[in-house]
Amino acid sequence: KLGYKYHWALPDYLQRSARHIASATDAAHAAAVGRAAVEYALAGHNGVIPVIVRGSDVPYRWKIAPAPLARVANHEKKLPRGYITRDGYGITAQARKYLQPLIQGEAYPPY
């Protein structure tokens, strides 16, 4: 009504851009996915996207693999129902087992 231009921000913007609280696993995943994307492009691979494939939980092992865009684009991967407690306010042991390796190590950004 006042004629001012404005934009409101959702709280999740801060979470999605919070590199300062990334785990070492986050940083390793991000670097590997970025590297693979460049390698795929330079090799002329089209219609694929690099994805993280978990090999094992303990010890945590993972690799990067190409996934066809047609299979993953415009699809939503939901959190399994078994990861949330019945009351909806907590996580289960199954969720903790899956998430634990993803929060390991500190990766402070260089200043």
From TrEMBL:
Gene3D superfamilies per record: 3.40.50.450
GO MF: 6-phosphofructokinase activity
Keyword vocabulary terms for this entry: Kinase, Transferase
InterPro entries, per database record: PKF_sf
UniProt name for this protein: 6-phosphofructokinase
